[in-house]
Structures are given as structure tokens and as C-alpha cells.
Specification:
It is globular, with a radius of gyration of 26 Å. β1, α3 and β2 form a beta-alpha-beta unit. The chain is an alpha/beta fold. The strands form three sheets. It has an eight-stranded parallel barrel with strand order 7-8-9-10-11-12-13-14. Strands 2-1-3-5-4-6 form a six-stranded mixed beta sheet. The chain has a two-stranded antiparallel ribbon with strand order 15-16. The chain folds into three domains: 135 residues, Chitobiase/beta-hexosaminidase domain 2-like (Chitobiase, domain 2); 327 residues, TIM Barrel (Alpha-Beta Barrel), CATH 3.20.20.80; 142 residues, Alpha-glucuronidase, C-terminal domain (Alpha-d-glucuronidase, C-terminal Domain), CATH 3.90.1330.10. It binds beta-D-glucopyranuronic acid (BDP).
């Protein structure tokens, strides 16, 4: 009896003070907690009294569910859905064609400029009543408009004089899951795969729906369910019904499913003797396979393919080109409106003189040879998702081909789900880089949104960091990277500061001072990580295998998988000479970019060792010689993590205990790891520079041997 009383008292307490309930991070940025600021709440209560969604479809139905739960949550009381506008403060959502109210408002001219999926949000009057209109040309736009509206409310923004127009600038906005059929996730640090293939299609986890809602809230409209290192089994009938079950859950949220296609599938599951893309039987097999997929999933998006890279099969096994392979698959899905995303991350078994050059060398000659429904998926930089890389020289170099970027949201090379690293600045750096392909202003973003070369098929992909752990991404701040990717895929010109601000307000707090503090942590975090991992253009010097800690000493195995191949430290200096007198990778960029990179005086210092082999005593802009600068940057990285810890400590009054403590604890590990990076790298490079540590740089705690043999026991993904 006593216990029952205690429990009921607790329930009443939680009801009265919902803000203090345990926060496990599951709700991501869609929290819809009651607005606690009295002035803001008063304004919302006055402006929002009822809602109507006019029209009938599964998308509009889920939009209604979202409207209802968000309004009830944020306003702390039930806001009813009505059939007609009878009072001030009615929200009306629908399409121009499906909503009599919206079509009566003469919004055609405003809405003409909207691209598909775009929307307007407008404060106006209807029959003398003040209303908020969320209008679009299609159902997806209505859903996105509703999520935008709730972004405003969650950020405590005014909703009285609304006049918002928004259209996605990129057509296909996709997550790539590197998920295996046994539920392990390649480079995944957040538990197991979200897709439970054992229990599908019968059991539909609530997470599938919440995954779809979350993605829809940031405009993501496609998901590749399976690893690029593909398993042909996913294309068998038994698995396709499972895929169809997921597609059914995602469809109302306007998310299409895509699959990775293993190029050798006709041999492995089709019992053919070859997978040669020009073989008539192979062509027929893929056509039939596509027909089968579309009979189960009529809106199937298409295929993503990693071919002839890291041991994956591909057309080159049959002396055919990437274009031959991509086009054969593209022809199979074309009658159904499908597309093929063919990855440019290729490198074969022969070690090239410079791996950074390979994708460009293989793909540029193929420009113009791909079908209209093929996109070439290009990683943001020419090597592999490093903390800092220059933009990939393919952007702007294949004008006749649709190119899409691939960013890595999962932090393979950036501290997995242990380090706090906000990736929007990394994505933004690439998107805003000027390729000069058609003169000044030829930004990567313009290649991607199709405006530079008049492409209408446009796309952007991010390798997902979501998994089965309760809060989806492990680190609370890793959620921000998922959010940032979605926002930049919608509008590649957005600024990281804005994205951080939105996310913090929705996820943690609307207190201005706390927002500023957390923003500062987030916006500095990537540069801090570059400092303690790979300053001044160093790259690919991580531990072999797990890519988490330092491993500049790695020198065994395939040369272009070793660290020594990339940093090239010797008694004279350090860095990869990619100038015209070295590997000449600079020649893959348009002038003046190539000349800027080629010249040690003009090369941006944050890419110096990417492009130049620089003497240890070379003087940098800081006045320090290179060796001292390297030590100083590593040390600065460590000290900055301590500053992050300090700043985070000051936010405790604004953050629930669970998430505050989680982040605090992870920052302790980040500081430890930053020291390991600093000390391991400095000690190792010192064996070449033979110079003392400059003044002010903390002395390493252990000797080099210690770091070379260090093992992590508390990092996800490392055994
Ligand atoms: C590398 C990863 C590897 C991926 C590969 C890829 O280490 O696991 O399979 O990229 O993108 O970064 O294909």
C-alpha cells in the first residue's frame, strides 16, 4: 500500500513537473515539452486555438498526428482539430489542390515559385479570422511545413507575423546505412542496426516510425538500408518482403527506400556464370530483379553501388568500365523511375602513386557516358572522410554528369561516438569551397544543387550514425550531426551557426546564455579535433583497423593503407608532396585553386602537409617553425578540450541531469584521448625531427612504446 502511494505521488509529481522527468535522449530534437517561458506560452496560447488539415492521404494523416501531439505537448493542453474555421488562431494545413480554404486564398502566385516538397507558412486572414496557413503543392511539402512550424515553436520564436517560403535545393536527400544483415554496422558506434531482419516483416518496431518522423522533420526523403560492402542476399525474395515492410512504414513520411546492389549478385544468387554488365543474361537478370522489387515496392528509390573498390566486385572484373556497370543497372530501374548512385570511392589492387588522385583519374574520362538516371556519389574529400581534407577535385570536373556528395555522419575518423565533434563546419567547408570550374563562385554547393551545370537530378548522401542504442547516436551531440546533415541537404548554403542554434534550442534549452555557450563548444569542436588529431593538413595517421586513436607509426600492409605513406616524415620534414614536382594531384584542381595549393607560400596552412613536404624548420605565419607549430597545435587541441569541459560545466542548470552527466563523462574520455593523440604523435614525429619540445607544450606522460601498444577497452566498435 505504502509503495502504491509512493508511486502515485511520483506520477502526480511527474505530471505537474514534466520537465524533470528522466531524459534518455530518445526523442532527439522532436521533444515537444511544454513551453515554460510564460510570455512565449501566452503568445502561443493566444495565436493557436485549433487546427485543420484539409485533404486525405497517408502523409496528411501522419501530419495530423504530429500536429496533434506537438501542439498538445508544447502548449500543455489539448488543441482540437476542427472541420471549419470558426475562430481566430486556427492552423490550416493542406495543398493548393486539396484544401478548399487554401485554394480560396489566392496564393497561386506565391506558390508558383515553390519546387516540389516546398511550402509556405503564412499568417493571414480567412473570413475575418486570423489563421496560420501551412500550404504546399504536394503532401510532402505540407508535412515539411508542419515540421518547420514546430521548429519555430520549439525555438520559442514568434508565430504572429509569419511569412516563410522554403523549398529544398537538392532533390534526393539520403541517409546511407552501412548496416549488415546480421545487424552489425560497419563503422557504427551506436549499437546494432536499426533494421531487425529476423523479426521483419511481421514485427514493426516503433523505432521504424520514429526514425521516419525524425528524418522527415529535417527533410530527408530517402534511405539506403544496407552496407555499401553489399550482401547479395538482400536482393532475394525473402529479404525483399522485409524491405517492403520498412518501405510501408516510411512511405507516409515521404521516405523512399534504396538498396545497395552487389555487382556479383547474378552469380551469387542468380546462378549465372558471369556478372559481366554487357552479357545479355546478366542484363535480363537485373531487369527481372528490378521488376520483382518494384512489384513489392512500387516507389523503390534505386541502387547504390560500390564497385571495384576495396575488393568489391565490379565491371572492371570483366574489363568493362564503371559507366558500363552503372548504365546496365540504370536501364534495369529506369522503366520504374529508379536511379543508380555509383560511388566514386574506388581504388583497385594496384597501389597508385597517390591514392588521392585515383577517383578523378578513373571517372573524368567517363564524363558524359552515364545514363540520365545515374548519379556519381563522391566523398567530400579525395581520400577518406578525414578530419580535414581539401574538397574532392571531381566536383566541377564532370560537367555532363550528375554528381552527389557523400558525407560521413558517423564519426569513423573523428572519435566515433565518444568525442564531441559537430560536423556542420566540416560539411559547410566542403559545400562552400570554390572549385572555379566555371570561374569564381563555382561553389561545390552549386555543383550539388545542379545550378552550375543545369542538372535536374540532384542528391546528397550522409553515412548514418543512428543505431539501436536508446538515444540513437551514442553521444548526445552526435544527434546534432544527423540534424545538420538533413538541414544542409535541404539547403547546402546554410550556415553552421544557425544549424547549431536550432538544434540546441530544440534539443537542450532556449536559454540564450546557455545556447551561446553550447554553440561555442559545438562550433569550435571540429577545429579542436583537427588540432589534436591531424593538424596542418596531416591525414590518415590513425591506428590501423579501428581508426580511433593515433597510429602515425603504422607501416605494414598495403602501402596506401599505412600512415607512413601519407605523412612521409623523414629527417628533412613531413607531408605529402602533391605539387607539380610531386604527385601532381594539384593539377586535378582548376586554376587558380591548383596554383594556390601548389605554392607553399599561398597554400592554406590548414592543408599545408596535405600538399607539401615541408622542412621541419620552415617558418609558418605564426612565426613558429613547423616542428614547433605541430607540437603547439597538438597541445592546443588538448587544452581546448579542457576549455570545452569547463564551458559544459557551466550549463548544468539548463540541462537535465542524465544528458549533462553523459556529456561530462564523455568529455573526460575525449580529453584523455586527445592527450594520447598529442603525446603519441609528437613522440613519434620527434624521432624524425630530432628537436626538443617547444616551451609551453606539456611533456608526454609515457614513452613512445606505450602509445604504440596502447589498447582501448571503452570505445564502441573496438574489441
Ligand atoms: C572507409 C571505411 C570502410 C568503408 C569505405 C567505403 O573504413 O569501412 O567500406 O570507407 O566508403 O572509410 O566504402
Amino acid at each position: 500500500m505504502k509503495n502504491i502511494l509512493k508511486i502515485s505521488a511520483f506520477i502526480v509529481f511527474c505530471f505537474l513537473f514534466p520537465g524533470i522527468k528522466a531524459e534518455d535522449g530518445y526523442r532527439l530534437w522532436l521533444r515537444y515539452d511544454p513551453v515554460t517561458d510564460p510570455a512565449v506560452l501566452a503568445q502561443y496560447t493566444k495565436s493557436i486555438k485549433a487546427w485543420i488539415i484539409e485533404g486525405e492521404s497517408s502523409t496528411l494523416r501522419v501530419a495530423g498526428v504530429e500536429l496533434q501531439s506537438a501542439l498538445n505537448g508544447l502548449l500543455g493542453r489539448s488543441i482540437t482539430s476542427v472541420k471549419a474555421v470558426k475562430r481566430n488562431g486556427t492552423i490550416i494545413a493542406g495543398t493548393l489542390a486539396g484544401s478548399p480554404v487554401i485554394s480560396s486564398l489566392k496564393l497561386e502566385s506565391r506558390m508558383r515559385g515553390l519546387s516540389p516538397e516546398g511550402y509556405i507558412i503564412l499568417s493571414t486572414k480567412y473570413r475575418n479570422k486570423k489563421v496560420i496557413i501551412i500550404a504546399a503543392n504536394d503532401d510532402a511539402g505540407v508535412l515539411y511545413g508542419i515540421f518547420h512550424f514546430f521548429r519555430l515553436l520549439q525555438m520559442h520564436k514568434p508565430v504572429t507575423e509569419l511569412e516563410i517560403t522554403s523549398s529544398p535545393l537538392v532533390k534526393l536527400r539520403l541517409l546511407n546505412h552501412w548496416d549488415n544483415l546480421n545487424r552489425s554496422v560497419e563503422r557504427g558506434y551506436s549499437g546494432f542496426s536499426l533494421w531487425n531482419w529476423n523479426t521483419l516483416p511481421d514485427s514493426i518496431d516503433q523505432r521504424y516510425t520514429d526514425y521516419a518522423r525524425t528524418n522527415a522533420s529535417i527533410g530527408i526523403n530517402g534511405t539506403v538500408l544496407t552496407n555499401v560492402n553489399a550482401n547479395a542476399l538482400i536482393l532475394t525474395g525473402d529479404y525483399l518482403v522485409k524491405v517492403a515492410a520498412l518501405a510501408n512504414v516510411f512511405r507516409p513520411y515521404c521516405i523512399k527506400v534504396y538498396l545497395t546492389a552487389r555487382f556479383s549478385a547474378p552469380v551469387e544468387i542468380g546462378k549465372l556464370k558471369t556478372a559481366d554488365p554487357l552479357d545479355p543474361e546478366v542484363i535480363a537478370w537485373w531487369k527481372k530483379k528490378a521488376d520483382e522489387i518494384y512489384s513489392l515496392i512500387p516507389d523503390f528509390g534505386g541502387f547504390l553501388v560500390k564497385a571495384n573498390s576495396e575488393g568489391q566486385p565490379g565491371p572492371q572484373n570483366y574489363n568493362r568500365t564503371h559507366a558500363d556497370g552503372a548504365n546496365m543497372l540504370a536501364d534495369a530501374v529506369a522503366p520504374h523511375g529508379g536511379i543508380v548512385m555509383w560511388r566514386a570511392f574506388v581504388y583497385d589492387n594496384n597501389v597508385p602513386d597517390d591514392r588521392a588522385k585515383q577517383a578523378y583519374n578513373e571517372f573524368v574520362p567517363l564524363d558524359g557516358q552515364f545514363r540520365k538516371n545515374v548519379l556519381i556519389q563522391v566523398k567530400n574529400g579525395p581520400v577518406d572522410f578525414q578530419p580535414r581534407e581539401p574538397f574532392h577535385p571531381l566536383f566541377g570536373a564532370m560537367p555532363a554528369t550528375a554528381l552527389m556528395p557523400e558525407f560521413q555522419i558517423t564519426q569513423e575518423y573523428l572519435g566515433s561516438s565518444v568525442h564531441l565533434v559537430f560536423l556542420a563546419p566540416l560539411f559547410e567547408e566542403c559545400l562552400k569551397a570554390d572549385t572555379y570550374a566555371k570561374g569564381k563562385g563555382s561553389l561545390v554547393a552549386k555543383v550539388i544543387d545542379g545550378t552550375l551545370e543545369n542538372h535536374t537530378l540532384t542528391a546528397m548522401a550522409g553515412v548514418s550514425n543512428a543505431g539501436s542504442v536508446r538515444n540513437w547516436t551514442g553521444h548526445s551531440f552526435a544527434q546534432a550531426n544527423w540534424y545538420a546533415f538533413g538541414r544542409l541537404a535541404w539547403d547546402p548554403y546554410l550556415d553552421s551557426g544557425q544549424i547549431a542554434g536550432e538544434w540546441i534550442r530544440m534539443t537542450f534549452t532556449c536559454d540564450d546564455e546557455a545556447v551561446q555557450r553550447i554553440s561555442k563548444i559545438m562550433l569550435n569542436s571540429r577545429e579542436i579535433t583537427v588540432n589534436y588529431m591531424t593538424p596542418i593538413g596531416l591525414h590518415h595517421i590513425m591506428y590501423a583497423g579501428h581508426h580511433y586513436g593515433p597510429g602515425p607509426w603504422v607501416n605494414r600492409g598495403r602501402q596506401d593503407w599505412t600512415s607512413v605513406y601519407y605523412h612521409r616524415a623523414d629527417s628533412i620534414g613531413i607531408g605529402f608532396d602533391r605539387t607539380s614536382s610531386g604527385s601532381n594531384a594539384v593539377s586535378q584542381y582548376y586554376p587558380p585553386v591548383r596554383d594556390i595549393y601548389n605554392n607553399i607560400q599561398t597554400c592554406p596552412e590548414n592543408l599545408l602537409l596535405w600538399f607539401h613536404h615541408v622542412p621541419w624548420d620552415y617558418k609558418l605565419k605564426s612565426g613558429r617553425i613547423l616542428w614547433n607549430e605541430i607540437c603547439y597545435r597538438y597541445d592546443e587541441g588538448v587544452k581546448s578540450v579542457r576549455l570545452m569541459q569547463n564551458e559544459w560545466g557551466k550549463t548544468s542548470n539548463f540541462i537535465d541531469k542524465e544528458r549533462f552527466e553523459q556529456v561530462k563523462e564523455l568529455l573526460v574520455r575525449q580529453e584523455r584521448d586527445a592527450r594520447i593523440w598529442r603525446d603519441g604523435c609528437i613522440l613519434y614525429f620527434q624521432t624524425f625531427s630530432k628537436r626538443p619540445l617547444p616551451a609551453g607544450v606539456d611533456k608526454p606522460e609515457h614513452d613512445l612504446q606505450y602509445y604504440m601498444t596502447h589498447k582501448y577497452t571503452d570505445v564502441p566498435g573496438i574489441r
